[in-house]
Amino acid sequence: MHSVLVNITTLLFLSIGIKNDLLSVKVNKLSSTKTQLPYHYYFLQYCKPKKILNSAENLGEVLRGDWIENSVYEFHMRQETPCKVACKVKLNAEAAKNFKEKIGDEYRVNMILDNLSVAVIRQRRDGSQSTAYEYGFRVGFKGNYAGLSCILQKAPLRYLLLIYVTFVTLLYFVRAKRRSILSITT
């Protein structure tokens, strides 16, 4: 099992951005369009908070099958946060097998920040330059990372696990009939 970097981006449209307010990222289910069988986020061996709390806020979330829970990801409004390690995990054989199965079935991790789904910016398939977003991010993918020599030697595909998370939030301020967008990386 190998790891690669993923960049997770969420857009926040807020009229008031009070500096230092706590922003807690919540986790939702793992979902796949290939199998349509959802799993709890913590079914996979992701970093866990000391106590996992259910955060379902309404009947619709329960009926939809959402499993909204707290996570280890927290930061503060309008305050850059340097890279920090959420936890260190050594995968045992069963945990690695679970990750491989979810990568093979194209599962996505769904997170929520300030009641908005976390999304990943992606390149459009039609080649246009307009921005496109995908809800959640992939657990990982199958591929090679060793360059052309692997392709020429027909090396087997490897399972690559996405383990680095970067949150980029965009704040929307309204000031006396004038709009401006401020981008803050956390």
TrEMBL record:
Domain of life, per lineage: Eukaryota
Family statement drawn from the similarity comment of this UniProt entry: Belongs to the nonaspanin (TM9SF) (TC 9.A.2) family.
Membrane-spanning intervals of the chain: 157-174
Membrane disposition: Multi-pass membrane protein
Claim: Transmembrane is one of the keywords in the record: yes
Keywords, comma-separated and alphabetical: Endosome, Golgi apparatus, Membrane, Signal, Transmembrane, Transmembrane helix
Species of origin: Oldenlandia corymbosa var. corymbosa
GO cellular component: endosome membrane; Golgi membrane
Pfam families xrefs: EMP70 (PF02990)
GO terms classed as biological process: protein localization to membrane
PANTHER family xref list: TRANSMEMBRANE 9 SUPERFAMILY MEMBER 2 (PTHR10766:SF111), TRANSMEMBRANE 9 SUPERFAMILY PROTEIN (PTHR10766)
Range of residues in the leader sequence: 1-17
Localisation: Endosome membrane; Golgi apparatus membrane
Name of the molecule in the record: Transmembrane 9 superfamily member
Major location category of this protein: membrane
Annotated InterPro entries: EMP70
